[in-house]
Amino acid sequence: MAVIYYDKDAVPDLIRSKKVVVIGYGSQGHAHSLNLQESGVEVRVGLREGSKSLPKVEADGLTAIPLEEAAEWADVVMMLAPDTEQPAIYEQYVAPHMKAGKTLMFAHGFNIRYGTITPPPKVDVSMVAPKAPGHRVREIFKEGGGTPSLLAVHQDASGQAKEQALSYAYGIGATRVGVLETSFSEETETDLFGEQAVLCGGVTALVKAGFETLVEAGYQPELAYFEVMHELKLIVDLMYRGGMNYMRYSVSDTAEHGDYTAGSQIVTEETKFVMNKLLKEIQNGTYAENWIAENKNGRSWFNKQRQMGQDHLIEKVGADLREMMPFVDPVTIKPGE
After folding, report:
1. For residue range 112-127, what is the model confidence (pLDDT) as tens digits?
2. Do 202 and 26 touch, CB atoms closer than 8 A?
3. Catalytic residues, which ones?
4. Looking at CB atoms within 10 Å, which of 39, 105, 274, 292 has the fewest?
5. How far is CA 266 from CA 71, 261, 271, in A?
6. Beta-strand (E) ranges in the chain?
7. Are 41 and 171 in contact (CB under 8 A)?
8. pTM of the prediction?
C-alpha cells in the first residue's frame, strides 16, 4: 500500500532552518530554487565559473555561488545538474565538504542506484523527485498548487533524513498534492523504464511509424501530422483527467471500437517481451553502463540519433503547421541544438 504525505505531515521550519544550495539551473533547478525561496528558505544556486545561467539566476532575483564554495556554504546540497555531469561535480566540488550533519539530495536516483556517486556514511542522502518537468513544477506552484513527487531516503545519518526531505518537498509545493514514499532503486528503475518504453521512446516511435505509414501510402504529410501527432495531446489530456475509461467515454464509438480491435495488434506479446528486456537491462545496470560510456566517448551515436530525429519530415511539416496555430505557443528547436 502506497504511503503518501501531505502538508499536514511536513514540518516547514526544518528546511527553513537550513542553508540550501541547488546545483544547476536548468528545468528542475530553476523551479526548486524559486519555489524554495518563496517558501522562506535561504537558497543559493551553485554554478560553474562563466555559466550561461548566471544572468538568468540574477534576473530571477536569486543569488548565485561558485561551485567551489557551494557545498562548503550549504547545509543541504541538492544535485540538479544533468545525471551524467553529477559524478564529476560531486567528486571535485561537493565531496570534500560532505561533513557530518550535512545532507546530499537528488531529484533522480540514477547516480546513487548505479554507484557513480558514493557519499560518506556520516551524511544524510535523500531524494525528492517531482513527477513533472521543471517548468510545470514552477507554474503550478505559482498558481497555488503543487506537483506530485516521490520521496526516498538512501542514508539516514541524522535520524531526521525523511522528515527533512519531506520539509524540502513542502518547500517546492509537492506536499500540497501528495508525496509518495519509495526507494532510490524503485524510482530510478521505473523512471527509466517509463521514459524508454512509453513516455519518450515508445510514443515517439509509434508516432513516427504512423506518420510514415500514411505518407508512404500517398496521404498528405500535413494530414498525417494532424492525425498522429497533433491530436495525441487531446487524447492524453482526456486520460490525464479521467483515465482510459474517460478517454473512451469521450471519443466516438467508432474510435473506441478501433481502440479495442487495433491496440493489441500494435502492442503485441513481442512488444511486451522487449519491454521486459529493457527493464532487465535497467535493473542489471546494462543500460546505465552503456549511457555512461556513450558520454565518456563523446556521444557520437547519441548526437547522430538527435540529428536524425530533428531532420525527420514530421518535424519539418509540424513546424510549418504550428506556425499557423499561435494558440499552441509553438517552440522551434533548430537542428544541431
Report:
1. 999 999 999 999 999 9
2. no
3. 108
4. 274
5. 50, 10, 8
6. 4-5, 19-23, 42-47, 63-66, 76-79, 103-106, 124-130, 149-155, 179-181
7. yes
8. 0.92
